[in-house]
């Protein structure tokens, strides 16, 4: 059963995670978000219950 042999797969997984962590992630995190969160005031609307005919 070749899937139980971690020899080739562990190296591939380790290489891909190191590539992502050390190369790709800093490049992706350097981008600025275009939709920055703003401090908007929250206004709530008063809702009235529905007048159900059977209650």
Give a description of the structure.
- The chain crosses the membrane at residues 6-24.
- It is a single-pass membrane protein.
- The structure is a single chain.
- The radius of gyration is 27 Å and the shape is elongated.
- The protein has one helix at 6-29.
- The protein has 55 residues and is mainly α.
Helices and strands, with pairings:
Layout: H1 6-29
List keywords for this structure.
55 residues; mainly alpha; 1 helix; elongated; ATP synthesis; membrane; ATPase_protein_8; ATP synthase complex subunit 8; transmembrane helix
Which percent bin holds the helix content? Answer: 40-55%
Structural class: mainly alpha
Instruction: Give average pLDDT, whole number.
Output: 80
Number of helices: 1
Q: What is the rounded Rg?
A: 27 Å
Q: What is the H/E string?
A: H
Portion of residues in beta strands equals under 5%
Q: Termini separation (Å)?
A: 66 Å
Shape: elongated
Largest sheet properties: none
- Compute the number of strand runs: 0
Low-confidence stretches: none
Quick summary:
44% of the residues lie in helices and 0% in strands.
